[in-house]
Design goal:
CATH superfamily of the largest domain: NAD(P)-binding Rossmann-like Domain
Shape: globular
Number of helices: 9
CATH topology of the largest domain: Rossmann fold
CATH architecture of the largest domain: 3-Layer(aba) Sandwich
Distance between the termini: 34 Å
Number of strands: 7
Structural class: alpha/beta
Largest sheet: 7 strands, parallel
Bound molecules: nicotinamide-adenine-dinucleotide
Helix content: 40-55%
Radius of gyration: 17 Å
Order of helices and strands: EHEHEHEHHEHEHHHE
Number of domains: 2
CATH class of the largest domain: Alpha Beta
């Protein structure tokens, strides 16, 4: 327990779902937590929850598609807490599902890639120099099962998560000697706001939920807390020999 004691952890997309659960878990494990996201009231509410439980946390309103805002996020983190040890680059959007390749648009591609791919690239660009200042760190990027397999009608989202794995492997190679480990977490279907949107309209939801559940050999969807546990492990000293990995936390979806 408290494997993150004394560490400063930055989490993007921390206002809900996997990011929120991870912020809470990092704090439980002893880390000082910086929460980043676009939604101020949600971000402040999670921050208060962490502080009320005795943790140290700060919310910084940030759009990860904007380089100046990411730069300011990292600068404020270091100015406030003196260092950056862990970054969980988790903010993401699913875009539109049920669009076949021949119907995709440049606007849709840009909307999803700006956040899911450019956001991860720019986050690492500004986090890495801050980590190097204090001898290294750990980065975890959120990919998805669909970073490893396809899903019909979701080509843009699928491609964006494949790209996250490419950025992760590359950065892992580039900074291995400087003691920055870079890994990806690839969740299966997780009960979050995003999953609820992707599962369809209220009328379609029970059907969508049944379909997605059936893809998981464990017979259920995952929880944000189950992903948070895997992320904290990847950030912890227990994962000291793991870099460039893609940890599939998907209830067995991709081994069928
Ligand atoms: P979510 O919608 O609850 O969380 C996504 C978070 O990212 C939200 O808080 C949102 O406000 C934030 N965000 C979106 N665009 C942003 C931007 N430009 N700048 C800053 N923050 C932004 O859903 P989630 O399921 O917790 O998603 C977290 C990550 O997990 C995403 O990258 C998603 O692609 C990935 N993922 C989710 C699932 C699933 O089934 N839920 C499966 C695989 C991967």
């Amino acid at each position: 327990m408290n494997s993150m004691y004394g560490k400063v952890a930055l989490i993007t997309g921390a206002t809900s779902g996997i990011g929120k659960a991870s912020a809470i878990e990092f704090s439980k494990q002893g880390a000082t937590v910086v929460l980043a996201g676009r939604r101020e009231s949600e971000g402040e509410a999670v921050t208060k929850e962490i502080r009320d439980a005795g943790g140290e946390a700060m919310f910084i309103k940030t759009d990860v598609a904007d380089e100046e805002q990411i730069k300011a996020l990292v600068e404020k983190t270091v100015a406030t807490y003196g260092r950056l040890d862990v970054a969980f680059n988790n903010a993401g959007v699913e875009g539109e599902f049920n669009i076949k390749t021949a119907e995709q648009t440049v606007e849709h591609y840009q909307q999803v890639f700006d956040i899911n791919v450019k956001g991860v690239l720019l986050s690492m660009k500004h986090e890495i120099p801050a980590m190097l200042e204090h001898g290294g760190g750990a980065i975890i990027n959120t990919a998805s099962v669909v970073g490893s397999i396809g899903i019909a009608g979701a080509g843009v989202y699928v491609a964006s998560k494949h790209a996250v794995l490419g950025l992760t492997k590359t950065a892992a190679l580039e900074y291995a000697q400087q003691k920055i480990r870079v890994n990806a977490i690839s969740p299966g279907g997780i009960e979050t706001e995003m999953f609820q949107r992707a599962a369809g309209t209220p009328e379609e939801k029970s059907q969508g939920r049944q379909y997605f559940t059936s893809l998981h050999p464990v017979g259920r969807l995952g929880t944000p807390e189950e992903i948070a546990n895997a992320v904290v492990f990847l950030a912890s000293p227990g994962a000291s020999f793991i870099t460039g990995a893609n940890l599939l936390a998907d209830g067995g979806w991709t081994v069928q």
